[in-house]
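Entry:
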Amino acid sequence: MEHAVQHFDIAIIGAGLGGLACAAALAPLAEMGLKIALIAPNAPHYNDSRTTALTPYSQTLLQQWGVWSAMESTALPIEAITLTDSNRIDAVRLPTVQLTAEDAAHIPYFFLVENQALLTALRTQVDALPITRIEAQLTSHSTHAGAVQLTLDGAPSISASLVVAADGFGSPIRTREMMAVKRTDYNQSALTCVLSHAKPHNNTAVQHFFETGPLAFLPLAGTAQYPHRTSFVWSLPHDEATAFCVNTDALLTQLMRFQGGAYGQMQLCTPAVTFPLIAHVAQKFHAPRIALLGDAAHRIHPLAGQGLNMGLKDCDMLAQLLQKTPHALHDTTELGALLTNYTRTRQPEVTRLHGAQTLLNGLFANPSPTHRVFRHIGAHMFNAMPPLKKLAVQLGSGR
């Protein structure tokens, strides 16, 4: 005797940062009585030493979703930013752009958090919500007029009026739906880890623009064992990034030289790891009864640390649209219009940001002395124009 397939109003596929954030954003709908499922295999051990720069807007969203209070003590407010434009062999790297606390009206530029802390806070919040957790792997799906049928490995099949694909960069759902993406391979790796150092960082982020790619020093909150900590992200050719993972003494020597002794003696708190720098933006963020968000919809260059912030805005927009018209879940035409609105709202912003990041990365990677002169002239003009600084701060805040 066949059992009836359990039906949900919304099924979220993926329980990483994107999927959990989406579940937290949809809390009002769950509390209204809508049936929401969060589907992903059980992952008891999550080890991610990467960090995220959360904009003030993202902080506001996490406050609204009840997540921020659990992670606030580990989130470091960044009060100043220094940018340099130099070659790696230069003995001195003079600041070309400086943003102070006064430029931002003493509001933090962003908050540096460790991905592990953010994930833990999101998971704790979602566990307290009336959302069904299904520990299983999605193996296939098929869309019909009124629902999406989901075949799971490790649990009975279910159906859902709306599927939210938060299943990552490789997104099997996006692949099965044959949704086109614009892909950019930077032919580089991002090298990252967390450092401990002798001198304080003074809540100041530093970004060096080199001909081989940017290097960002991103301050973190201290711990009892490591009072002064900073993470770094360095864009490098693949072979050089891999070599530094093996020869960490050479890595530390380079990093200390680039900082000119500002941090004093350094040591690695976490293993150095790399990940390929490949960006993509889906041409549409939806298919019939399916919404893409986070890495499934887009991944951009980490130059300005906006990737996760864009994903949180995806969650917020989708949640807002659904809260305004929850009945659309059960009307194919209305849901199609809602998802089209979602794409029209989110995709152009991500596309513009992706283009700007790629352009900026290429501009600073150009070793031509002429380009460098013009960059320095532009930086001087930027430093001398407070209204331009104010505009840059407003744009960077994520609003």
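The chain has eleven helices and 20 strands.
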